[in-house]
Amino acid sequence: MASRWVVRVATTPFAVLTWRSRPPTVHANPCGRSADGAVASLPAVSEDGHVSVPSSPAVRARTRRPAPDAACLAAVDLARDAAVAAAADPSAVGEHLGTDLDGDRVLTHFFTCLAPGYPGWHWAVTVARASRARAVTVDEVVALPGDEALLAPAWLPWNERLRPGDLGLTDRFAAPADDPRLDPGYSAAPSDIAADPAVDPAVDETIGRVAGTDSPATVADALGLGRARVLSPFGRDDAAERWVASDSGPESDLAAAAPAHCATCGFLVPLAGPLRTAFGVCANAISPLDARVVSLDSGCGAHSEGPAAGSGEYRVASAASDPVLDDVALAGFSLTADGGPDAGPDAAAPAEGDLSSAAD
After folding, report:
1. Which residue, 9, 106, 194, 216, could crosslink 102 as a Cys pair with Cβ 3.0–4.6 Å?
2. How far apart are the first and last CA of the chain?
3. Does residue 352 register a pLDDT over 80?
4. On the CB side of 233, how many CA atoms lie within 13 Å of its CA?
């Protein structure tokens, strides 16, 4: 009996190559037939071994959009009743705006939303009909915003919503690790200090004690650097701009009416660091800016070198307004002719400006 062997090539799904003792023949695969029974074209193999499979009507994807269901289209009253029930107010549901097809026998009706506080919104009621069923049911009722709807602002985390003055007595708010307003306040970790050959613990006992400790903040504190983080240049500029724009800055009404600037006031306590060239702290208990950071070109009426009270030397902040003549006068009258309580309505009234009878 002659031996036979068969080799199936996985790269040619439309054909099976069979070798026997005779030359190979190509048999068409049944899956290559079209819906009407015609045999589709066989795959073509190029010289480099690439196989191109021709398209066949039997394997094309089905892309048919379902038609709107007539029963779902006609269920306008059912959808309106569902929207009225959800709104709990018949006047909150307006006219029918149209429909949107969601799938086979699934459709959404839209109605104008007339509820107070919801301009630009609309009601969306989704209805459906089961296969081979006659009744249409309500799937979902929801109010959706339109293009011109009044919406709440985008949600922000609480730490981004905080504003100056929001922090209460028991609230806690630590600056994040990547806060751009802060920079590290130390320059070396314990391992760097211990490995530095230029550092002699015998000379500086403080460095010798802190070398090898666990926390860089501990090292910074022992070396006199104090804080783990300090104000960065960005934070310094941000604070300076905020102070200048405040009511203790040079553009405030209080500074405009001041006799002189804070820079020449004896109650000014200068700041340390780079900010001392522009700001200080007021130490005058009489001043409305007491215990506050003030700009050096700001001021108030409690300047230590200002004019004395009553000297008339105070500077006027703005030009005086035009004088106003007060022409309102009191008209005297009497309820009786002689000032008594029994006089009639025809009693003579005192002359204008004579208030003696009225005073009696």
Report:
1. 106
2. 152
3. no
4. 0
